[in-house]
Amino acid sequence: MLVHLPILQVIVPLIAAPACLILRRPKLVWLFALLASSLAFIISMLLLQQVMATGTISYELGGWSPPWGIEYRIDKLNAFIALIISGISTVVLLAAQTSIEKEIPKDKQTLFYILYLLSLTGMLGIVTTGDAFNVFVFLEISSLSAYSLIALGKDRRALWASFQYLIMGTIGATFILIGIGLMYQMTGTLNMADLAERLPAVAETRTITTAYVFFIVGVCLKLALFPLHFWLPNAYAYAPSIVTAFFAATSTKVAAYLLIRFTFSIFGISFSFTALPIETMFLVMGLLGIFIASTVAIYQDNIKHVFAYSSVAQVGYMIVGFSLSTPAGLTAMLLHMFNHALMKGALFMALVAIMYRVGSSKITDLQGLGRQMPLTMAAIVVGGLSLIGVPLTVGFVSKWYLVVAAIEKGWWWLAGLVLLGSLLAVIYVWRIVETAYFKAPVLGQQPVKEAPMAILVPVWLLVSANVYFGIDTRLSVEIAASAAKSLFGVVQ
């Protein structure tokens, strides 16, 4: 059984998705989806444990040995990312049944779970497959279900947000496919490990440089890297709250994984950072993303838009770590991917609670909620502190490692800019805190009760994780540093 864990990681949610149709009652469907996601989470933990102990796992499909057959290849990097995705998915699903009662019609609730599991399948497939074309296949499975999930939002603008994401996502996927096609044309293989061996022989050709450009642009669209982020704010704002919580914590991590995987493992460091000036390009785009997106977030009146633009800024921090092109920089990036999932998971799950009770995500409607929904608003405060990077939270840990990586490279000015970017987060987080705690409820507004425990429990699970991994960093730092060093070929 343990031998088949790599394929079970993908198969479990894939089979569970259509099986939801058999179960007619929404509660049963929810329990079944939760079980499938929990199994995927347990599998990812076992895989990570195995990889950390024994090294890379190669799994052949159909008895055809790679590169002729399809291979699932698990190493420290993708085992870590799979753990993040499946873990967040499981915690979010704990609150799904209660949340969608208010936001999704009863006749569409089964469809929601089917699409959710398909999106999870796609994400896990992207990170576990060792076949470049399968990356595109799983990307489409994940994306198509994501467009449909966003369109389930009760606000009519959800349809426009979904369409906008569809157009941008299709362009991104097309660019990725062209990049993969050009690589296949020059090497005659789609197996990632085989591609890594064959590409150096043709690396000097214009075709491979073009393939790299197409792939990078496509991934940056999916990553919502500034200035290719325009689809993200509306997608997050108008999707059902539970969908936003899931995507905000996972989808950009998958795109970041692809960027790391193809840059370091397939094209190789020497090619990636010499064929194009990506070190400078990504540094500039990352910094612009941090400052412009954070500034835009300050002026938003919808809390979902605030946190959506904040996500664009946080992607900027990840990309700044990537642009350093050092093991320390990559460690900071991987740490921030993990920590950002916890931060945004907690914040958007708290918004699920607010939407359940208030039915609005406008900042003005939060007046007086600090007293009426103390546990929910406390979760937003802790998540906000993590977003800023206050000590004893996960946000501090990844920004600390990013500052250290910048200083190691001799870029003191970058360390200063990272700290300055954090100050902008103080402003938009304070706006929310001020409204909730220091302003009286609107006259004539009905008193609001605290959110149900079914939502509060997963919220505080994520909040607790924000604090725990902010204090005890051994596990997250060890895995991130180990994965980064292996990508740079550092013998451990």
Describe the structure.
The chain has a two-stranded antiparallel sheet. The chain contains 20 helices and two strands. The protein is mainly alpha-helical and 492 residues long.
**DSSP strand tally:** 2
The structural class is mainly alpha
Strand residues, percent: under 5%
Largest sheet: 2 strands, antiparallel
Number of helices: 20
What is the quaternary state of this protein? Answer: single chain
**Radius of gyration, whole Å:** 21 Å
How are strands sequenced across the largest beta sheet?
Answer: 1-2
Shape type: globular
Helix content: over 70%
Question: How far is the first residue's CA from the last residue's CA?
Answer: 29 Å
Uncertain segments = none
On the 0-100 scale, what is the average pLDDT? 84
Q: How are helices and strands ordered from N to C? A: HHEEHHHHHHHHHHHHHHHHHH
What are its keywords?
492 residues; mainly alpha; two-stranded antiparallel sheet; 20 helices; 2 strands; 77% helix
Give a short synopsis of this structure.
With 492 residues, the protein is mainly α. Helices cover 77% and strands 2% of the residues. The protein starts with a helix and ends in a 5-residue tail after the last helix.
What's the arrangement of secondary structure elements?
Blueprint lengths: L4 H15 L6 H29 L2 E4 L10 E4 L1 H28 L5 H20 L3 H20 L5 H31 L4 H11 L3 H18 L8 H7 L2 H27 L1 H7 L2 H21 L4 H21 L3 H31 L11 H4 L1 H15 L5 H15 L3 H27 L14 H19 L2 H14 L5
